[in-house]
Amino acid sequence: MIYLTNFIHAWLIFIAPLSLFNVKSSLNEQIIFTFIYGNALHLIRTYFMPIAPMMTHTVLLMMITIFLYKVLIKQLIWSKCILMAFIWIIALVIAELLITFPIMHITGITVASADTVFAHRLVILFTSNLGLIMIYAIGRFKHRKSKVSAKNF
């Protein structure tokens, strides 16, 4: 079950910046991104993070995200893909610093317990993704009457 939470995180990383910029994506694009990024996230957290210097996994995941944005939504220019990747990383960092870490401290949840206890993983998943959820909601609210294709972006 813990493995499946990677896909929720991956889906939010895809739809939140697109919503903010009013770029429509198909269900197929969402599924492909979520599947590839979710598996990459799991592999990087499992095999790369224990041996790599701090924050290198974040840079690697940003590169994967930028590449997937460009490949899946071909009309987006590279600078917009980079901007969208920076938006989700900033949202995650802010949410983790202001919400996730304090809640982990108050409740006694550790990174190790989040890898084994499903309820702990859900708390971290929800709190760390609050920034992405807010970006998605802002985008939907801001653009509730119109949707444009990536060609106009």
Gist of the model:
It is built from seven helices and no strands. With 153 residues, the chain is an all-alpha fold.
Total domain count: 1
Structural class assignment? mainly alpha
Instruction: Please provide the count of β strands.
Output: 0
In whole angstroms, how far apart are the ends?
Answer: 37 Å
Biggest sheet record: none
Q: What tags apply to this protein structure?
A:
153 residues; mainly alpha
Fold and architecture overview:
The chain is mainly α. It has one domain (2-146). Helix content is 75%, strand content 0%. It has helices at 5-20, 27-48, 56-72, 78-107, 111-116, 118-128, 130-142. α1 packs across α2 (27-48). The longest helix has 30 residues, at 78-107. The termini are far apart. The relative contact order is 0.17. The mean pLDDT is 90.
Topology, element by element:
Blueprint: H1 5-20, H2 27-48, H3 56-72, H4 78-107, H5 111-116, H6 118-128, H7 130-142
